[in-house]
Amino acid sequence: MSNRVVVRIGGMSYTVIADDSPEHVEEIAAYFDEKLTEIMNANTLPPLTATVLAGITVTDEYFKSKASADSLVAQMRNYVGENVRMRAEIGELRRELEKAKLEIERYRAK
User: Fold this and answer.
1) What percent of the chain has pLDDT over 90?
2) Contact, 16 vs 25, CB < 8 A?
3) In the prediction, which pLDDT does 70 show?
4) pTM
5) Which residues of the chain have pLDDT under 50?
6) How many domains is the chain partitioned into structurally?
7) What pLDDT does residue 1 have?
8) Cβ 9 vs Cβ 36: under 8 Å
9) What residues make up the domain containing 75?
10) Bridge partners (DSSP) listed for residue 5
11) Could you tell me if 18 and 25 are in contact, meaning their C-beta atoms sit under 8 angstroms apart?
């Protein structure tokens, strides 16, 4: 279900229609507005230029976060693979231990 949410960015009101919750849309808009405000306060730029720079900043953050998440997923896959390998090795070691115990029992029985 689409939601109509009015947000303020750069002092202007915008109506956003989204399937996400109104709180989520407001959070995203507030974050973008914060980045835009930071850029506008640090520089004397036309509003459009500041908005484009804010968009580039947020996009850069997204790509860095995505790369970091992708790296973590790959690391987790490696850990899962290592876990599977180690469990197999533990199973083999348990079988070897049982064989050794049987041999010890046979030796003692002699």
Assistant:
1) 94
2) yes
3) 98
4) 0.71
5) none
6) 1
7) 80
8) yes
9) 3-109
10) 16
11) yes
**Residue 109: its pLDDT value, please?**
87
List the structure tokens of 87: 């469990």
User: Quick one: 28 exposed, middle or buried, by C-beta within 10 A (0-12, 13-18, 19+)?
Assistant: middle
DSSP code of 1? -
Which residue is it, tokens 């947000």?
A: 7
Helix (H, G, I), strand (E, B) or coil at 98: helix
**d(C-alpha 9, C-alpha 56), whole Å:** 16
Amino acid at 64: K
Which amino acid makes up residue 72? L
Q: How far is CA 108 from CA 10, 79, 89, 95, in A?
A: 86, 42, 28, 20
Name the residue type at position 40: M
**What is the model's pLDDT at position 35?**
97
Give the DSSP H/E element, type plus range, for residue 18. strand 12-18
* Burial status of residue 81 (CB atoms within 10 A of its CB: 0-12, 13-18, 19 or more): exposed
